Amino acid sequence: MAPSLLAGKTAMVTGASSGIGKALTHALAAEGVRVAMVGRDAGRLERAAAGLAAEATTAWACDVRDDAVVRETVAGIEAAWGRIDILVNCAGVYLSAALPDLTNEQWDDLWRTNVSGTLFPTRAVLPGMLARKDGIIVVLSSVAAHRDFATMTGYGTTKHAVTGFARALTNEVRQDGVRVVTVVAGPVDTPLWDGLSTPIERADMLTPGEVALAIVHAMTVSPTQVLEEVLLLPQAGVYH
Ligand SMILES: NC(=O)c1ccc[n+]([C@@H]2O[C@H](COP(=O)([O-])OP(=O)(O)OC[C@H]3O[C@@H](n4cnc5c(N)ncnc54)[C@H](OP(=O)(O)O)[C@@H]3O)[C@@H](O)[C@H]2O)c1
Q: Which of 26, 34, 73, 201 is the most exposed place for a label (fewest CB within 10 A)?
């Protein structure tokens, strides 16, 4: 079998301790990628790496809401591995609330995590990618940005924002060899839904592994192509 187009590359995956980011870490490791796993809890990251070879991953405790900490983390990964070829912005938080109940604190945290938490890592890795004229940046958006569901004014607007961010960035860096992929996922059965009412049965949702496979597919098209947007929905639909 031909080696993967990704073999030997390095990746930084935010939100790697759970759900989609964890599944993607395992999928990338299977392609021969070394993954710098980012999340706020080092122990949780290490548990998420269980089963992978020790040299396949490193755990970086980092809050993506903090620009200075993100810059330090990116500098640390680049010092350790020489470069970051792939960035996946998977860290995110979800909230469903009727608008009169949505507090300023909730709104701010959604924006700081989902939007600033995408800007900070992306801005920090980009100079290295531009200098090498090579790189892949993945942004996790959501079908909540495309179907505009009730009670998702806060979460949905953050996902509109990251979609717009990724679309503009695609055009900014396409001549410089950097490819930007927006992943628009329907409901995925991850701990994000724990304790919450769900739009469809969890058994009918996408699995994190299915989303990870779609992202790996987007990363492994020919370097002369960019799969700019991946819209992946459960066959069962988005709402029952
Ligand atoms: N599940 C879905 O139905 C679905 C659908 C479409 C899109 N998405 C998007 O996909 C992404 C991943 O979601 P998921 O379902 O995999 O969620 P999840 O299982 O809850 O995982 C979220 C991850 O983000 C990390 N995280 C949260 N806040 C962080 C912060 N401030 N700094 C660093 N890491 C942080 C968490 O680790 P710590 O808490 O330990 O830091 C965890 O690793 C999110 O952007 C989400 O909006 C999810």
A: 201
